[in-house]
What we know:
ABC-2_transporter-like; transmembrane helix; two-stranded antiparallel ribbon; mainly alpha; membrane
Amino acid sequence: MxxxxxxxxxxxxxxxxxxxxxxxxxFQYRVAMLIWLIGMVVEPVIYLVVWSxxxxxxxxxxxxxxxGDFAAYYIVLMIVNHLTFTWIMWxxxxxxxxxxxxxxxxxxxxxxxxDVAENLAYKALTLTVLVPTALVLTWxxxxxxxxxxWAALGGVLAVLLAMVLRFMAEWSLALAAFWTTRxxxxxxxxxxxxxxxxxxxxxLELFPRPVQVAADFLPFRWMLSFPVExxxxxxxxxxxxxxxxxxxxxxxxxxxxxxxxxxxxxxRFSAVGx
Length: 274
């Protein structure tokens, strides 16, 4: 027990040092960080304006979403997407080509810990801008928030589980760079699938029934739409608990897949003399 506790404290210490290091690194790329942040804000605002216009053209609503509901959905989606997204699948091709990965493999800790710390550092910095932006959008678009205390609290856990699931899924996708140096096609295909089945393009309720059923069984809804729906009070207590089970189940499956791909990829990377 003491040994495992000591290892945990040591790992937390490593994370804290990595976090501070990556925080300093992020400060050096302020312009790039600002560009990423603008993109994170502009996309949901565009969807919000489009769907609000459609709702007004159809008498004030589309399905169960009125203009205020669309505003609430996309403002919350902006926050959840920011908290869960990663960019690592765009970087591993460079890691392999440049030899950066070879250096990371020589370190005494798994490279994933560096990527987690970097991701958290970026989000900690940019949230200081994103939260005020969300408040401005709330003032400008007058969203309709109808939630309960248990949904608000349950949404926090849903976001944490979504962060874990999405990070592991996209880190697994990044490992395609072990086998090919042209990973953009995989990334673009993943992005399109995520766009439709995660509720990022539009609330899943507005899609045809077959798409909704498929979304329930794929991992993408549980990365984005589920926390958003929960925070907005659109789910029952039973649906919340079921959603947690889907998130945990997919997280376990993706973790096992990640382990398999990583071990196979490192063996291949070492075999070719990189």
